[in-house]
TrEMBL record:
It comes from the Bacteria. GO terms for molecular function: carbohydrate derivative binding. Residues 30-213 form the SIS domain. InterPro entries: RpiR-like_SIS, SIS_dom, SIS_dom_sf, SIS_GmhA/DiaA_subfam. CDD domains: SIS_RpiR. GO terms for biological process: carbohydrate derivative metabolic process. This is SIS domain-containing protein.
Length: 238
């Protein structure tokens, strides 16, 4: 376990030292989009949905977040459902139309492989309508790992800001001899760090602009429910 611990911390250290400027850039783009009347949209399919959820209604999290997390992106209905759907390129138009993505919005997409048709097409459609796209992905693909999009391109090709997850090939790249395969996927671990870092940077940008950052408190500490009530009413209508 010490080896895996060192593997994870090395991944996190590499991400911090090489991607901090990208996270700063992402926070700036999100702040600008919100101030111009756009939405801060976040999405991810399969296990990447956890990256999107890390932004959404978390204790200490930023409140003004619009998730794109339909049931078909999750794993609870069927273990293969999200995998199949994220490969169906034309399904991107369903998501694009249902969520009415427009030129004022900013779309944050998590996909470690960044190769599946629906994910790539959604980024492409968002850019074409004038929205900005931020990708959390691994742009360093193993030899022979081809895009599943008709253009042959990847998520990062249709993104304004690319945050490299700095994970190993296929994410689960910590070789375990007893299993004769890689284990210990790290994209979720570093993804949570990226999401929280962007949220903190975003709050700081609000403060620098003389605005009060809309940040949730934990509902499990005294006064949390009262603090959050106004935020839920203002941003989620509940």
């Amino acid at each position: 376990m010490e080896n895996y611990y060192q593997y994870v911390t090395a991944n996190l250290e590499k991400l911090y030292t090489t991607q901090i400027q990208k996270m700063e850039e992402a926070a700036t783009c999100i702040f600008d989009a919100i101030q111009n009347g756009g939405r801060f949209l976040v999405t991810g399919s399969g296990h990447s949905h956890m990256f999107a959820e890390e932004f959404y209604v978390r204790a200490g999290g930023f409140a003004q977040v619009s998730p794109i997390l339909p049931n078909e992106f999750f794993l609870h209905d069927h273990p293969l459902k999200s995998t199949v759907i994220e490969r169906v390129e034309v399904y991107a138009k369903v998501i694009f139309d249902l969520y009415k993505i427009n030129s004022k919005d900013i779309l944050v997409i998590a996909s470690n492989s960044g190769r599946n048709g629906m994910t790539v097409e959604l980024a492409k459609m968002a850019q074409e309508c004038g929205a900005k796209v931020i990708a959390f992905t691994n742009p360093n693909h193993p030899v022979g790992s081809k895009s599943r999009h008709s253009s042959g391109k990847y998520l990062y090709d249709f993104s304004d800001v690319v945050i490299d997850s700095c994970t190993g090939p296929g994410d689960a790249a910590f070789y375990v001899e007893e299993a004769n395969t890689g284990m210990g996927a790290t994209s979720t671990i570093v993804g949570a760090f990226v999401a929280q870092t962007i949220s903190i940077l975003l709050a700081k940008k609000y403060h620098q602009a003389g605005l009060k950052p809309p940040v949730f408190k934990s509902s499990n500490v005294d006064g949390g429910d009262e603090w959050n009530k106004e935020l839920f009413a203002k941003y989620y209508g509940v």
